[in-house]
Amino acid sequence: MENIVIIGNGIAGISAARHIRKLSDKRIIVISGETDYFFSRTALMYVYMGHMKFEHIQPYEDWFWEKNRIELVRGYVTKVNPEIKQLLIDGSRALHYDKLIIATGSKPNKFGWPGQDLHGVQGLYSKQDLDLLEVNAPNKEVCKRAVIVGGGLIGIELAEMLRSRDIPVTFLVREDSFWNGVLPQGESQMINEHIKEHHIDLRLSSNLKEIVSDGSGKVKSVIVAETGEEILCDIVGLTAGVTPNVDFLKNSGIELGRGVKVNRHLETNIKDIYAIGDCAEQHEPIGNRRPIEAVWYTGRMMGETVAQTICGNKIEYKPGHWFNSAKFLDIEYQTYGWVFSEKIKKEHEEHFHWRHPKEKICITVAFNKENNQFLGINTFGIRMRHQVFDRWLTQEKSIDYVIQHLADANFDPEFYKKYEKQIIDGYNMDFGKSIKPKKKSLKRIFQIA
Amino acid sequence: MSTHDRSMALTGQPPKILSRNQKVATLLGMFGLAVILLAAFNVSFPNKGLWLTISLSAIFTGTLWFSWEAYSQKLPGIKNDGVWFKSISSKGFWGWIAGIALTGFYIVLYFFPEYLGLVKGGENKGIIALFDPLSKLLSGNPASQWFVYGTLYTVAILAFGIKFLWKYRHNSYERIRTISVMFFQTAFAFIIPELMARLNGDKILNGGSLPYYDLKNVWPLNYYNFEGYRIKGFLSSGDIGFALLIFGILSVFVITPILTYKYGKRWYCSWVCGCGGLAETAGDAFRQLSDKSVSAWRVERWVVHSVVVFVTLMTTAVIYSYLGTDTSKYWLTKSTFLIGVAVLLTLVFAWVMIFKRAQLQKDAQYGAIGYFVIIMALIGIHFFSGDGNVFLFKSETLRKSYSFLIGSIFSGVIGTGFYPIFGNRVWCRFGCPMAAMMGFQQRLFSRFRITTNGGQCISCGNCSTYCEMGIDVRAYAQKGENIVRSSCVGCGICSAVCPRGVLKLENGPLEGRIDSNQVLLGNDVDLMNLVNQK
Fold first, then answer.
1. Please, which domain of life does this record's source organism belong to (chain A) (predicted)?
2. Is residue B222 helix, strand or coil?
């Protein structure tokens, strides 16, 4: 019987394991040094905030793995030897594989800042990071101030976590507005305001110069590059992005770039070795996507794809239309298709932006100004229906059509205030049009004749 | 290994810390309760009306003040910080204390009302006497233990309802739903029946007496609605009484099925019902304690459906016992009634087995067949044996055991007393026959579903954790499936706590409602076709 070994029990590795089991009777072994069981990484924050216990963020009950004959091994893989198809766990235990799937995820970036390895300096990625945070910042007496470096999704999550325990937070963001490498200006500006509303000391255009030690190997303060200001703190959160976690593969003969290099079939340069999830790096980016996609959903899709390939049905990784979501403190964010920030958007991309005069609600719709084709939407504080936008993107609808039928795409809970009218008025005003809204139609939404 | 503070202190670090004002508010509420407790030990209050007002106001104000302190300084949004750190909401020390106190209260209420001051054939004493002024104001009669309970119940739903309204002030669905349960409790369960009691003996009722009737309390939750003494009461009370009886029957066979078809059972369970009302307001702090395991689900299915069978048998037996045999006196006789029950059950059973069998899991099919055979056999035995009892038992024995086991122990002592241990919907999930019957329809024949938003789920588990009915919502959402579960009461909290906007309660077409195929959008279409090849 074929021996499938998967390194990493995150969403990519576990999706692969589950789907291989659905399709075959192969022996499946999943190795993880992090935890015994699969958990939802994106939910770690809720454990620190007391919304859930760690057991709640494990999507399957413990009996699930044995019942589905997925063998779990605890340990770190230290070496892979493709020549004899063998790997070493914790430097000692050897394990043979017939097919190997690398799904080792990421690790927090460290850019060589002075003091980045002091006690009290940490990232937020793994279960170990969460446990460490409980040591470094259990409460506001032990941790009198926290400094977070890096204004992305993990940074704002960490800020929210620490604020839930009333710990004062200073948030150093390199850009002149929060996440504006990704978000268009109007949205980024609204999030800036919301961060401040939550009593987080947001410092824009601020880089970290160095982390200062208290003399005993523990962090004492950070120094801001632009102003030279010293900020006293007990913890420094490094949240300036992540890098593939592939150091253990150096010298294994597996081709590495920043991550494990793979082709569209998620195969590495060595036969029978595959890489999926955050740690995989496409030779050629797919469409507008980045070669490395450290996103929950893509990890899951790659896992499903590689399972097909391994079970004899070789197929390409073909992600459909881009989508993503996040939550910035109290504001939910969803995106469908592509909306680029002013910094990186192409010549033909134009935006329609609408923001509620009082509430923290806004949307940005991107379209091609040459042919009016709808390209994508960012939405803050309004939930939208994935299925509907996926269909509109496939059908290459025009922006006028999308604006006109926005009610079909609304996914807010019942009785919520609707904003389609104001949005259409704004659109008509901005672009000199006179579009009338179409009523929500269950027939169109659910595609019934 | 985590080394953070795990002390048992009442008020520790944020987010579980209580502010000074919250401590004072707690004291105020406790003072209100203490007045009632003192009354239990026969401390005689000089002016009962005044002291009752002081006591209830203190409880009410204490709760509101506490909640205001908790939410007013925060921005609108999900307020679950520290839920699993606080001992009251995580089965800690205070959780157990609250559970034991509540359970004790229910045991006294149901089985030892004399400790509350009930005196058979005499003047009330103790707590019940304290409530006499309010009762006399409403119905003109002295209070009973049930009036005391009803008053405290209503105060709890109103005070904690307002707390809930603040907590979810960003969510219109939760707000409107909560205003609805607060209204139905106050008007339908509390005030209207008391005022109706004033009509008793009046000529508008032809001098008859209506039974105490909470109009929104539908059989089989209201398992005694068709008992002999109540039917007599309805029939003796002129057109109004007759209309109420007809309403009681229509609400079972017409109103409930239509509303459940259109909106799911939530129209009742989380919008109207009193049990649901208490669970959603006072019980809200305990919703995360429900058991989400597959084994708990298995137990739930067997227990709750057994209660349905039990209540059906019991009610049939009770109605049978007071019907006559002579067709010339009244068209409905013992035999026609039993045959009618058998025909109705056969029709429902046949409809399910012919049209909806594919939607039931194997064990549900076996269960349905098993129960059907048992009921039919019992009816058959009755016809062929011809002794005085129906179903081999005395109807009175059946009624008494149901009332004791289900009506008192299950719905009261366990259902509410164990809120802080098993969560706030133990009764609704494991015991309520009304919920089970509507759930059966909801699963098979209703427009209601919780739609999963394509591929947006990140498996975080907030939905499952905060589902009071113990549904593992995430198990469906992460596969892109809609959630169509008979137990779902439609409280909407899964949708509220979802950080990624994945869940939406909605009424839509029946077609494609239960889509057990995996629809993970974002993935290449061909791949998903492959995944779904079984």
1. Bacteria
2. coil
What does the DSSP assignment read for A289-326?
A: S-SS---HHHHHHHHHHHHHHHTT--------S-EEEE
| Ranges for all domains in chain A classified under CATH 3.30.390.30 | 323-446
- Strand duo A121-122 + A106-108: pairing: unpaired
State the ipTM, two decimals.
Answer: 0.95
Residue A265 forms contact with B (CB below 8 Å): no
Q: Which domains does chain B have, with CATH numbers?
A: 1-73+112-197 (no CATH), 300-433 (no CATH), 445-531 (3.30.70.20)
Task: Evaluate whether B289 touches A53 at the Cβ level (below 8 Å).
Answer: no
With an 8 Å Cβ cutoff, are B499 and A327 in contact?
A: yes
Band (pLDDT 50/70/90 cuts) for residue B517 is: low
A396-418 confidence digits (pLDDT tens): 999 999 999 999 999 999 999 99
The residues in A 232-251 lying below 8 A from B, measured between CB atoms, are none
Compute chain A's Rg from CA coordinates. 24
pLDDT value at residue A141: 92
Residues 6+ apart with CB under 8 A from B365: B353, B357
A318 touching chain B per CB within 8 A: yes
Could you say which of 3.40.50.2000, 3.50.50.60, 3.30.450.20, 3.40.50.720 is the CATH number of the domain covering A3-107+243-310? Answer: 3.50.50.60
| Contact residues on chain A for B512, CB-CB shorter than 8 A | 446, 448
Nearest neighbour of B462 by CB, restricted to A19, A46, A386 = A46
pLDDT at residue B7, rounded to an integer: 45
Q: Which of A165, A322, A325 is the closest to B456 by Cβ?
A: A325
| Contact predicate A133/A54, CB 8 Å | no
B367-420: pLDDT as tens digits: 888 888 888 877 777 776 655 566 667 778 888 888 888 888 888 888 889 999
- Give me the mean pLDDT over the A191-197 stretch: 97
Per-residue model confidence as pLDDT tens digits over B296-311: 999 999 999 989 888 8
What is this structure's pTM? Answer: 0.93
Residue B10's pLDDT is what?
46
User: DSSP letter string over B393-452?
Assistant: B-HHHHHHHHIIIIIIIIIIIITTTTHHHH-TTHIIIII-HHHHHHHHHHHHS-SEEEEE
Q: Are B451 and B501 in contact (CB under 8 A)?
A: no
CB contact under 8 A, A49 and B82: yes
Residue B305 has phi, psi (to 5 degrees) of -75, -30
Question: What CATH number was assigned to the domain covering residues A323-446?
Answer: 3.30.390.30
CATH topology of domain A121-240: FAD/NAD(P)-binding domain (3.50.50)
* pLDDT confidence of residue B490: 97
